[in-house]
Fold this protein.
Amino acid sequence: MSIGFVGGGRITRVFLEGWRRHGELPPEIVVSDPDAAVVERLAAAFPGVTVLRDDNARAARQDVVFAAVHPPVMKAALAPLASQLQRRAVVVSLAPKFTFAALRDLLGGHDRLARVIPNAPSIIGAGFNPTAFGPGLDAEGRDAVATLLAPLGRAPEVPESQLEAYAVIAAMGPTYLWFQLDLLATLGREFGLPAPAAAEAVNQMAIGAARTLAESGLTPAEVMDLIPVRPMADEEAALVAAYRTRLTAIHQKIRPA
């Protein structure tokens, strides 16, 4: 099964590294990107991968083709590729906003389609990559996509209508947390903890906090009441308002027209 990536940016690197770390990097991969610097970095990092500058047509001639471009350039990147696709190729969009109907139109009626909302922790096999399969994709095509996603973490099948919500909550979610976790580790060092101890404390705290909320059987209010001191209590209302305002706006922006 040969793999093509139209676009060689961050999420392509995440997938390639995730596969490599688990010893499951497909042997035949073609990546195309218009940016010479991106091509150079990927070629250096993954010497067994064919990385080309601005040759989307070759990437599109593979068995499974990942459309790894942002929504604003999706039309320009995919529309010229309709004639390059193999009849049995599976095209997997990694972007929100473009529905199966829109992708099918862009690709001249090609309907062997899947959509995945990728998650950066896939780089260590801890991803959460919600997946929807187009109505024209048979069991063989679905299995091919599932096989490729398996080393990257969980890939639950979800309705297409939910993908944009997952994009805001799951795909972008780490960005809401990582800077705060890094700050806590930094403060731990400043307060006298050795760097490894500070990192371990923050890591275990974050994992435990998430599991407690999900697995304790307590309501969110009861979970939050487990700790009597809440140093950030005065700022919580402002943070909640910021989350609601910004994330609702993002969700509206990426929803299909």
Residues 233-254 form the longest helix (22 residues). The first strand starts at residue 3 and ends at 6.
